[in-house]
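Key result, reporting period 2: structure in, sequence out.
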């Protein structure tokens, strides 16, 4: 069930946000719902990211490989 809320923001900012939403083929409400969902779940996204990075500790960014290493199968 969707619940209505009232927010206050600068009128010009709202106009720009509506225009940007329209360009994305979305409504301002849809973008706000997406933002609200991301805001609420930000901590779990961060935890998943950190877990992924720990699982990739074997990778060494910036490592240079020889031609033979690149062609190994």
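The corresponding designed sequence is given below.
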């Amino acid at each position: 069930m969707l619940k209505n809320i009232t927010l206050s923001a600068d009128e010009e900012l709202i106009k720009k946000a509506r225009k940007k939403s329209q360009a994305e083929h979305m409504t301002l409400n849809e973008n706000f719902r997406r933002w609200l969902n991301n805001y609420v779940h930000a901590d779990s996204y961060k935890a998943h990211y950190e877990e992924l990075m720990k699982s990739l500790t074997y990778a060494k960014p910036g490592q240079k490989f020889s031609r033979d290493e690149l062609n190994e199968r």
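Residues 32-58 form one domain. DSSP finds three helices and no strands in the chain. This case is discussed further under Risks and Mitigation.
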